[in-house]
Amino acid sequence: MIEDISIRYLDSFADKTLNAPILIEGLPGIGQVGKLVAEYMIQALGAEKIGEITSLYFPPQVILDEDGTARLSRNELFLCRTPAKDIIFLVGDHQSTSGEGHYILADFYCDVAKELGVRRIYTLGGFGVGHLVNEPRVLGAVNRPELREQLEAAGVMFQRPEPGGGIVGAAGLILALAVPREIDAVCLMGETSGYLVDPMAASSVLGILANLIEIPVDPTNLNDRAAEMEKAIENLVESEQHKDEELSYIG
Amino acid sequence: MIEDISIRYLDSFADKTLNAPILIEGLPGIGQVGKLVAEYMIQALGAEKIGEITSLYFPPQVILDEDGTARLSRNELFLCRTPAKDIIFLVGDHQSTSGEGHYILADFYCDVAKELGVRRIYTLGGFGVGHLVNEPRVLGAVNRPELREQLEAAGVMFQRPEPGGGIVGAAGLILALAVPREIDAVCLMGETSGYLVDPMAASSVLGILANLIEIPVDPTNLNDRAAEMEKAIENLVESEQHKDEELSYIG
Amino acid sequence: MIEDISIRYLDSFADKTLNAPILIEGLPGIGQVGKLVAEYMIQALGAEKIGEITSLYFPPQVILDEDGTARLSRNELFLCRTPAKDIIFLVGDHQSTSGEGHYILADFYCDVAKELGVRRIYTLGGFGVGHLVNEPRVLGAVNRPELREQLEAAGVMFQRPEPGGGIVGAAGLILALAVPREIDAVCLMGETSGYLVDPMAASSVLGILANLIEIPVDPTNLNDRAAEMEKAIENLVESEQHKDEELSYIG
Amino acid sequence: MIEDISIRYLDSFADKTLNAPILIEGLPGIGQVGKLVAEYMIQALGAEKIGEITSLYFPPQVILDEDGTARLSRNELFLCRTPAKDIIFLVGDHQSTSGEGHYILADFYCDVAKELGVRRIYTLGGFGVGHLVNEPRVLGAVNRPELREQLEAAGVMFQRPEPGGGIVGAAGLILALAVPREIDAVCLMGETSGYLVDPMAASSVLGILANLIEIPVDPTNLNDRAAEMEKAIENLVESEQHKDEELSYIG
């Protein structure tokens, strides 16, 4: 019988002794902000894959690799060893398709973090505002109040949430489920329209995250991509305004 | 592995010996009537939190507190000790997202009531009628016929239900699932349009409930809020009529 | 922990020794045909309740009885003892809300039938045709081919099904799940528009069923109700035609 | 209690010793391409049924056979013994109705393949392109890269998938879940509009599959059906163009 969730560590990751590890979660979500940041960091820092997670709570489909090989939808763990600390990344194709699966997977991720001795978790996401954002701020959430001050010093905003306001999916649940395991966890959310994949929001999050973890990450490529997108949107907006003007001549 | 439902009692509630306890359930529902009443009573009576319930049947999201701290969606238990009887309140962010979860949670609430020696349960809710209600009545349901007379004497109406008419969610299921545990349970439902959060319906329910449990609760603040809302709706209705009149001049 | 499905036999049904029992299933479904027939027979034959089935696969709501007492959504077993054979009826408020629940409940019903020594099961339902039917036929299905001849002799039609055509819910699943328990089972479906509760279709099914089980059931009241409905629909159709004529005068 | 999934082998299949068996999966899916190919081969090769699979993850309905007998929705196993190799076919009425059921069933199919000593699995399907296809290509996927070369030599195309592109349901999941069981598996998908049952796509897939497994299958009947459908669609398109022309005269 297939298990609800399976994790497989790569053989290359035989020695699970890590140096003051932190975990950065960047699964798919609003504006793909978390995914963009985590995958960019994996590439920029040359992190190496150490494990794969599959689950029947993911969509029932396989992904085709470029060579035509099918593999299960999955989440992946990457590791980057640095002198100061080791960084584990949690990225992947999908989040759960069911509410209960979200809880069970987030709980599993926290088990993994505990097992690997993770000292702090950063979950990344987008904060949908429903309109284009010129200079996206980074909003934060924490899993104990003492963590807030350090984030604010780094430029993270703590917006008074609407009553009942929350964070849906892994980025939020991990924060709460890390508490009984005594792992500090913070969530960084880049403001985003929510309509588009948003490298601008990702760029804002990356800048603050790199500062917080004191690991320099060259943001050039992500910033370039954000600048391109910003330009493309500007052109789109201008051409729309142009159309409006033409229409007003006619009218 | 995460449990389906977890309850955590606060350390301050070490002594679970209660004095003739009753349980008042006011979870979210139609017009938020039950929630308004129970949360108002908690504040008015100075009840103290004694426990928290989390469950993977709640929506997969965390709630942000005012200081930016994330916590799981949860239900909460509050306790108010009075000379005559102790009152436990069951309130919270959400009900279940699935049909099966509704049953499992309601059954769990009844287990908790049994464990704490609860003698009677009051479940609170709204009764949606689809139009604005000027003087909302309070409709009732019971889990054994003998309980009806006392409610009627207190002004609760027992409307002949439409065939197959029922009560959805915790407010109803708790009544039925309390029967095999030999706990009396009654449901009080304030008439409400069902479109708006309804302090007027809540005010009606509070008046009758306070009488029934013989615990005075100052209704001033809730009544004020109801009066404000009543005024706001009147203004809205008048301004709509005004518009209609203007339109009839034109037409 | 609440069970998936619970059955409770009434104390009055202590002696479960039955005389050549058959089971008639009439749960809610298309046109409420099965429900109408089974509930009519229960009343006409003076069958007595012997048991109740509750399940978390039913909708999460309670039903209010006329005296304001709340009870779980449930299915019920009734028994009518006759000299020739005993008849068990399975009726109720709802069927399952989930696909898996449908299987689990139908399997449970077959377990009950086996335990009570049932020799044949009749499942009743409507066969939706999407238009009004003047003289509804009764269509049949069986769980072994040998049963077909007797049904045809009684006037049941076996329409060549469309490829992949089937019967959804308990009325169908019980047939298939009775096979490994070696219980004969047949399904009788009255043709119905599918839009309305249909006493005409029910009347057709009742006539054939009473013949098949060789138990006379006075159909007067059901036929009266069917005649009333037929008249009401005729009036409705006429008044619509009248409107069309008036419109053609205008146009 | 009913099991999640049940398999029943026919008595005629007492000797499960097979000769270098392969498994061909052709369950319902896009354009019914896989189903058409597998069922055609079963008939053309005179394969015999050896087993039936039922599951509560299938829709909760029974299928009526031509004689009016109801049976559970099911999948079926057929066997064709040839001198060179034995061929097992997996066909059926439905796939799972839930995401989790898809995983559990695909895993079960791989268990069956392992138990029967299957050396290679062919899963068949349609590749929906959203428009009519004149000469449908056959696209492929594999469960290890080494399998690709042989497919390409047989005319299977390996299109660079869109990022995140995948295969939904059994045809894809079986590929991935066969890997830990060390069974080679390939998926053949005929290009199809996705709107219609598509014998043309099926014909393309059959041609390549018969070559790959080195078992000649007379494609005449399937090709005839494809030609008929092609003609019918041409007529439809012409008559639409005709209408357009008539409209342009009017306009």
Gist of the model:
The structure is a homotetramer. With about 250 residues, chain A is of the alpha/beta class. Chain A has helices spanning about 35-45, 100-115, 150-155, 170-180, 200-215, 220-250, and strands spanning about 5-10, 20-25, 50-55, 60-65, 70, 75-80, 85-90, 120-130, 140, 165-170, 185-190.
Helix-strand layout with pairing:
Four copies of one chain form a homotetramer.
Chain A: E1 5-9, E2 22-25, H1 33-45, E3 48-55, E4 61-64, E5 70-72, E6 75-81, E7 86-92, H2 99-115, E8 120-128, E9 138-142, H3 148-153, E10 166-168, H4 170-178, E11 184-192, H5 199-213, H6 220-250
Parallel strand pairs in A: 2-7, 2-8, 8-11
Antiparallel strand pairs in A: 1-3, 3-6, 4-5, 6-7, 9-11
Helix pairs in contact in A: 1-5, 2-4, 5-6
Global mean pLDDT of chain A: 93
User: Largest sheet of chain A, if any?
Assistant: 8 strands, mixed
Multimer state:
homotetramer
**Radius of gyration from the alpha-carbon trace of chain A, in angstroms:** 19 Å
Domains of chain A (count): 1
Which sequence of strands runs across the widest sheet of chain A? 1-3-6-7-2-8-11-9
Q: What is the level-2 CATH architecture name of chain A?
A: 3-Layer(aba) Sandwich
The helix/strand class of chain A is alpha/beta
Shape of chain A: globular
Helix coverage percent of chain A: 25-40%
